[in-house]
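During the no-cost extension, the postdoctoral fellow (Dr. R.K.) reprocessed legacy sequence entries with the updated structure-token encoder. One reprocessed record is reproduced below for audit purposes.
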Amino acid sequence: MAEQFSCALLLLAAGESRRMGRPKQLLPVGGRPLLRHVAEIALAAPVSPVIVVLGAHAKEISPCLAGLAVRVAVNERWAEGMGSSIRTGLHALAAQQSTPDGVIIALADQPDFPATHLASLIETRCATGKPIVASAANGVLRPPVLFAAAWFPRLLELHGDAGARALLQAHPESVAAVPLATSADLDTPADYERFRRGQA
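Re-encoded structure tokens follow.
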């Protein structure tokens, strides 16, 4: 049944990495830049298209995606927060020939969710009929998050840096959850060092 649910993926990578002190999209992970690593995970999942939203440092970062079957959208208003990147990605998606049944929103600084987890989000959407399927780690709902197409207008209304979290909090009855066993967020140098030690 999951095969009948067409799903795109927005990979948000527009932030300036202020707390990291350098573009975290280019941090080495598994011998390649972090953003390429996460994009390759997305491309291994049953999603299409994969749209990567860049913003700060876009010219420096975009070469790391060379040769990958992703579409790049640049958020010129990245400083306004994650909501603007979601809008940029959805506008790029709307320019495609057909509208998918849903979209998964993922973050480029989450390096360790597997492609099978993205498939599980789609399968859970099909099994439960819930219009939102979030990942759950340590009792917290978090990205990657799947939204059915009926929720695209609400996503387009998002502003600021909270992303889609407000929708999850405001509509718990519409949300199903899929456990995410690993949930690293690479926001600071300390986060990155912990992740590297865990991968050693």
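The mean pLDDT is 92. Residues 133 and 176 are 5 Å apart (CA to CA). The remaining legacy entries will be reprocessed before the final report is submitted.
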